[in-house]
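Entry 12.
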Amino acid sequence: MSDLASHISSVENAHPDAAIIVLGDFNHTNLSTELPNYHQQVTCPSRGNTLDHCYTPLKEAYRASAGAPLGNGLKTRNPILFSCCLVLVGSCILLYLRYLANFVPVDNLPANREGKLRRIINLDDTLHFGARQGVETCTSWKAPIIWEGMFESDLYDQKHIQNQTSVALTVFAVGRYLDAYLKTFLTSAEQHFMLGLKVTYYVFTDLPEKVPSIELAPNRNVKIMQVEKHSRWQDISMMRMKTISDAIESDIHHHCNYVFCFDVDQEFKGRFGSEALGDSVALLHAWYYNAPNNSYTYDRNPRSKAFMETGDYYYHAAVFGGLLEKVKNLTDYCFLNIMEDKLNNVEALWHDESHLNKYFWINKPSRLLSPEYCWDQVIMEKSDINIMRLIWAPKDYVGLRPLATKNTN
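Predicted 3D structure (tokens):
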């Protein structure tokens, strides 16, 4: 029984949103002794005086009642047919529970069942993929592309608040970028980013004493992390991958379960909420989301580790995120490949963004954010953009970037 309980626990960890039902012909034992949160659903004899077992984590998942026997000694006469019937019944129960989870209004559930049923809801099953005409809402590998009008924000917020989700936001403000952008970035984030959730802003800067003080809501705080200032802006951009990975390992994993990484020269303008959270999250680049694949600016240099002949989409490195372990895998991958390029005297076309695109080509993201989540107002054609959640700030590369030089690789 302990082996069965261990296997069930591993299934729960691998599929936290699944409705789990345990059926079995183990009449002389009790699963609840090993897993107290699992409840026996069969309360009346199913065969003579025998009480078959059916366990679920939902105490009142369904009501058992006696009915006419299924055949005459079916289990004895045809055990294969009996097993098929048992599997069929279990599958029907599972489908019915999933139906209830997705279509019964959660706010109308009895209070003692509401929390448990919320946990088995797969919120992405509630996405309205047909709500947006003219734009792609799902990838070929079935990852959702999040646009305004596709999601019920209250459902996502309630689930993440209930699960006590905590989010780390990383941002780099080095050199002149601190004075130019950081205060606007942080104050606008407080108005729009993951409201209602626990958020820690990790500000990486070479000038910790100049980080502005801003008013923060409850359960939100700022951590200032001092970093080295590199002589070239390209190195600042590329070395952030190692810095983020190191911060996840040394600090962030103690406090948060999700990480979102942002460029500082941006301003939040609308809700950037829990609907954006996922295992591995990538952002469609505003300039390329509806452009042909052959126009994507992948690194075309075969000498670079970022080299790509083709890909799925062009992703913008100004925003990426996901679960801690997923973001750490991404940043470690990018850093190691950046360093290998350096050893070969190669620099990818768009630096860390080129390596990020290569990573997401190999390791498909589980969630894509539409360009509503990072829009450039210079783009005149914006009929697809119902809301600008985050916008690019005006750029002054000559005045802000140290030794801004043309990339010749």
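Annotation: DSSP finds ten helices and 13 strands in the chain. Confidence is low (pLDDT under 50) at residues 101-118, 403-409.
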